[in-house]
Design goal:
alpha+beta; 8-stranded mixed β-sheet
Length: about 170
């Protein structure tokens, strides 16, 4: 679902939860609109390229030796001005992803990460907010993907759930 927020008031849903499937569904009704990715407070250049789409299955141990596994889709954006005066239409982006999915198994529920570089600066990892309609374009705000501690994240989520249960009562525990 797209929101029609003012670009200065973009309020992302939990960006770490946006999947490639979420993004494609949000773009489906806007195929002819320019797709503008924003990062570092500015839009990508109109000639940006999707240079690579890759899927990965990861297995790891977190800092408390808990096993972790997840799927992730990486979309690499090359922030250059070589494709013309307008940004890529959302439908072209979706077609690129569909073409990749014909050859590479893409889990539509996988975590979505954007790798962005202008070809000079090192690639940076970003997460994506829910797309917004801004003027005649579809904008997707990218923000740096932070590191996290999964055991701490689970503990905080548990604390929040306990706090909600307790504070919802007329008397506190």
């Amino acid at each position: 679902m797209l929101s029609s927020d003012n670009p200065k008031k973009v309020t992302p849903v939990d960006p770490s939860d946006l999947t490639i499937g979420d993004l494609l569904v949000a773009l489906a009704d806007h195929k002819d609109r320019p797709l503008v990715f924003r990062y570092d407070g500015r839009p990508v250049k109109p000639g940006y390229h999707v240079t690579e789409v890759k899927a990965g299955q990861f297995s790891a141990l977190d800092c408390e030796a808990n096993p972790e596994s997840w799927s992730e889709v990486f979309v690499q954006l090359w922030d250059v001005d070589e494709g013309g005066p307008v940004h890529m239409p959302a439908g072209k982006f979706a077609a690129i992803i569909r073409k990749v999915s014909d050859h590479v198994a893409l889990d539509e529920s996988a975590k979505l990460t954007f790798e962005v570089s202008d070809g000079v600066r090192p690639m940076e990892l970003h997460r994506a907010a829910q797309p917004s309609v801004v003027g005649g374009a579809i904008e997707v705000e990218l923000s740096p993907r932070p590191a996290s501690c999964k055991p701490r994240d689970r503990w905080l989520k548990g604390q929040a759930a306990m706090g909600n249960a307790c504070c919802g009562e007329s008397r506190c525990c």
